[in-house]
């Protein structure tokens, strides 16, 4: 086809030159025709190969300038890591969420944000009528119990003398049991308040820290009204959060296909968005026993040391977990070009008839989420294929 096209162009050139050839001597005319014929023959030989649109044909000098490196595709020992996203959380045994068990008004605030506090240290004082009510309930319940006990004893003596009915004796016995139960209830409520600390004179309730740690959150101000967590109805606000930041958890979601590769105690590494050049080392200490039915993922928890306390709650991170290594057909990232929504590689197809090097661009699917030094090939490539591992971007410019 290319040969016919070249002959057609040569004939058209002869037709354009015909008026001039008529004025030349016969020997000159023959020389011109011979030259055109020779050019046509040489052009036909050079034009026998036409590269397809997906093929870049370059000279040896151009390939050297582009620093093209060709390697055979082979199975490689993939990096024994699994990359996923994560979120920083507190260790639940090292954090305390403090609510007020009583309704009242904030009378004093003792702890400031960021302050280091000890277990049992006062954080704030709430003035509450619930304190007086609890004390009054105990006194009243005690009096009711004594009266019920006297009545029961009296009815028992009368019953022995057959001076009262058995029905009245049972009623007195029931009243005694109810009074006893009411006193126990009142004492339990009073005990709950005394455990946190109360002041019977000012009716002040002292909020204390349940753990050693830093005051990470404070949600109250002087004179503010607070609602008790045992109140009926309404929303109860958390007043303080106290916790340790020297060690934190990172919660990650692992896809179902990767669950079998992760084990308790596996080494883990985390990088936070806020500190991209800093790595934190830890380990996997818990794997959930259930899958999320929507995302088909499993929760994995990693523990990380945080001596500088720069990992904060709810920070987003990238987690790399050590897993069992395996072999698979893989390419270096430099071999794969991203063109639109498609990944491509260049394959070495040998030489053209005129001595140029042929490089064909073909689509390939790789696992970009695998991370590490290699990109596993999902499909589109076979073992042994001669792949351009360096210089692919420069070759793409010749298309």
Protein architecture, described:
- Strand 15 (267-272) and strand 16 (275-291) form a beta hairpin.
- Helix 4 runs antiparallel to helix 5.
- This protein has 399 residues and is α+β, with helices and mostly antiparallel strands.
- It folds into 4 domains: 2-46; 55-78 and 327-396, conserved putative lor/sdh protein from methanococcus maripaludis s2 fold (Beta Barrel), CATH 2.40.420.20; 83-93 and 244-322, Beta Barrel (Elongation Factor Tu (Ef-tu), domain 3); 129-202, Helix Hairpins.
- The chain has 6 helices and 25 strands.
What's this model, at a glance?
By secondary structure, the chain is an alpha+beta fold.
Could you outline the blueprint of secondary structure elements for this entry?
Blueprint: H1 2-21, H2 26-46, E1 55-58, H3 60-65, E2 69-72, E3 74-77, E4 81-89, E5 95-98, E6 104-109, E7 116-117, E8 122-127, H4 129-160, H5 166-196, E9 198-199, E10 204-208, E11 213-218, E12 225-226, E13 240-243, E14 247-255, E15 267-272, E16 275-291, E17 297-305, E18 316-322, E19 327-331, E20 337-339, E21 342-351, E22 357-363, E23 365-366, E24 375-379, E25 386-390, H6 392-396
Antiparallel strand pairs: 1-22, 2-25, 3-19, 4-14, 4-18, 5-13, 6-8, 6-12, 7-11, 8-10, 9-10, 11-13, 14-17, 15-16, 15-18, 16-17, 19-24, 20-21, 21-22, 23-24
Helix pairs in contact: 1-2, 4-5
């Amino acid at each position: 086809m290319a040969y016919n096209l070249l002959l057609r162009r040569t004939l058209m050139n002869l037709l354009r030159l015909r008026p001039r050839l008529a004025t030349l001597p016969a020997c000159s005319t023959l020389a011109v025709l011979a030259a055109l014929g020779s050019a046509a023959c040489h052009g036909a030989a050079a034009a026998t190969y036409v590269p397809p649109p997906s093929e870049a044909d370059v000279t040896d000098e151009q390939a050297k300038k582009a620093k093209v490196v060709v390697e055979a595709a082979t199975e490689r020992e993939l990096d024994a890591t699994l990359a996923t996203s994560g979120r920083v959380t507190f260790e639940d045994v090292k954090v305390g969420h403090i609510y007020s068990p009583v309704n009242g008004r904030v009378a004093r605030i003792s702890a400031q944000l960021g302050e280091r506090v000890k277990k049992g240290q006062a954080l704030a004082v709430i003035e509450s009528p619930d304190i007086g009510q609890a004390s009054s309930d105990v006194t009243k319940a005690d009096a009711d119990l004594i009266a019920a006990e006297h009545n029961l004893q009296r009815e028992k003596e009368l019953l022995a003398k057959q001076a009262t009915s058995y029905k009245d004796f049972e009623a007195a016995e029931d009243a005694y049991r109810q009074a006893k139960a009411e006193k126990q209830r009142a004492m339990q409520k009073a005990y709950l308040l005394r455990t946190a600390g109360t002041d019977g004179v000012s009716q002040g309730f002292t909020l204390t820290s349940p753990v050693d740690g830093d005051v990470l959150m404070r949600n109250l101000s002087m004179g503010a009204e607070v609602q008790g967590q045992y109140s009926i109805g309404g929303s109860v606000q958390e007043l303080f959060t106290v916790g340790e930041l020297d060690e934190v958890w990172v919660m990650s979601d692992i896809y179902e296909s990767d669950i079998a590769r992760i084990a308790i105690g596996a080494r883990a590494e985390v990088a936070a968005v806020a500190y991209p050049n800093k790595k934190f080392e830890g380990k996997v200490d818990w794997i959930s026993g259930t899958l999320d039915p929507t995302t088909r993922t499993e929760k994995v928890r990693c523990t990380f040391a945080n001596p500088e306390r720069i990992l904060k709650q709810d920070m987003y991170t990238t987690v790399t977990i050590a897993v069992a290594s395996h072999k698979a057909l893989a390419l270096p990232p430099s071999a794969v070009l991203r063109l639109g929504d498609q990944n491509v590689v260049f394959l070495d197809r040998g030489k053209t008839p005129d001595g140029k090097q042929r490089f064909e661009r073909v689509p390939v699917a790789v696992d970009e989420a695998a991370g590490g030094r290699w990109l596993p090939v999902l499909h589109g490539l076979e073992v042994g294929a001669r792949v351009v591992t360096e210089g692919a971007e420069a070759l793409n410019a010749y298309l």
